[in-house]
Amino acid sequence: MKRKGWPLRSLGRCAKFRSGGTPSKSRPEFWDGDIPWVSSGEMTESRIHDTALRITAEAAEDGSRLVPANTVLAVVRGMSLAKEFRISITKREVAFNQDLKAFDCEPDVDPEFLFYALFARREHIRELATEASHGTKKLETHTLAAVELPMPKLAIQKRVVEVATAYDDLMENNRRRMALLEESARLLYREWFVHLRFPGHEHTRLINGVPQGWRKVTLGSITTKIGSGATPRGGDAAYQSEGITLIRSLNVYDDRFDDDGLAFISDEQAAALANVSVEAKDILLNITGASVCRCCMAPERYLPARVNQHVMIIRADPTKADPFLVHAAINSDERKRQLLSYAQKGSTREALTKETVSNFEITLPTDNLMRRFGEIAADAFRQRELLAQQTQKLRTARDLLLPRLMSGEMEV
């Protein structure tokens, strides 16, 4: 059906607002449940399936709120509002904190349509945020409630959702495939180098529990670079919509690079950070804050790039160690626990120094075994990069399509 100028309706008339909260940190038993607890960090345009933090139902009653699957969530307070208005939709029951609002849709409003309608107007809504305390931004409830959205009849909403979700379903399929590739590399490392069931293990002699020919080395002895960057003068306000990629800690996860919140800087700013240029096969390690020790391979699709002061580049010397083996070793369970223990020894905050990282020990297998692992891990990485590129193209196509869908001018 072709419509022009769908009727507008205020968000306050489309849904009832619900506020969240944070369960008591003094009750550790609250944080040992199976209900995902969502804060602004988990809020992306993707569907929310899971989070690292989980709480109990009792905790949700004490300090948060439970919402069912297909509930739209939006960030209404925090530093992220200076850059973007974050909206997500849940795919299972979750709880959420006080920086978010949940929208309980009226019977004639499809939650997924509301999600897309808000997403299409995210730049306008972000501009409505006002200054709050300590340099953060906030969206007042009455301001958000007054935002007008196109709201056709429910049957048309559902047809629009069918078109838009076709892109999201493809992106979600890619996400699952990428997760499987990440998991396959982790499992292979665990099988070969933790459980010692590597090719030829039956004929390899163990000396003090270590296969013959394996050796412990420090990262400093097998790398050509270990160092972190800096934030360009002017901070967030100096970032651009395009240019040279600036990788920050919010982009670095274990075994995974997150595109959301990616920043860009000018050629002049990048020149000032030339000593922290990211190269292919570099390992990225978060060295400060709550995300300390998260580690992934640098995404080649965003090169050239720089890193800020919260991210360290670890560049393996290819004549001494395979970078994919070094990355997997850092992220292995035992080594990660050790690295976290070093980070938590700081007097004021969690942090890793260049000296600590340089002196950090990992175990290298024989050159032949290391090469075999590197080839398999590199192939999985290349496949993930291709899927990530496909996902970015799908996201761009969807974002270009949404304004036409939401204008009512496109036939659905």
Main sheet, how many strands, which sense, barrel?
Answer: 5 strands, mixed
For this structure, the CATH topology of the largest domain is Adenine-n6-DNA-methyltransferase TaqI, Chain A, domain 2
Question: Helical stretch count?
Answer: 11
Question: Could you give the order of strands across the largest sheet?
Answer: 2-11-7-9-4
Radius of gyration: 24 Å
Fraction in helix: 25-40%
Number of domains: 3
Secondary structural class: alpha+beta
Shape: elongated
Distance between the termini: 5 Å
Number of strands: 28
Query: What is the CATH class designation of the largest domain?
Result: Alpha Beta
The CATH homologous superfamily of the largest domain is named: DNA methylase specificity domains
Question: Proportion of β residues?
Answer: 15-25%
CATH arch. level architecture of the largest domain: Alpha-Beta Complex
Average pLDDT metric? 89
Low-confidence stretches: none
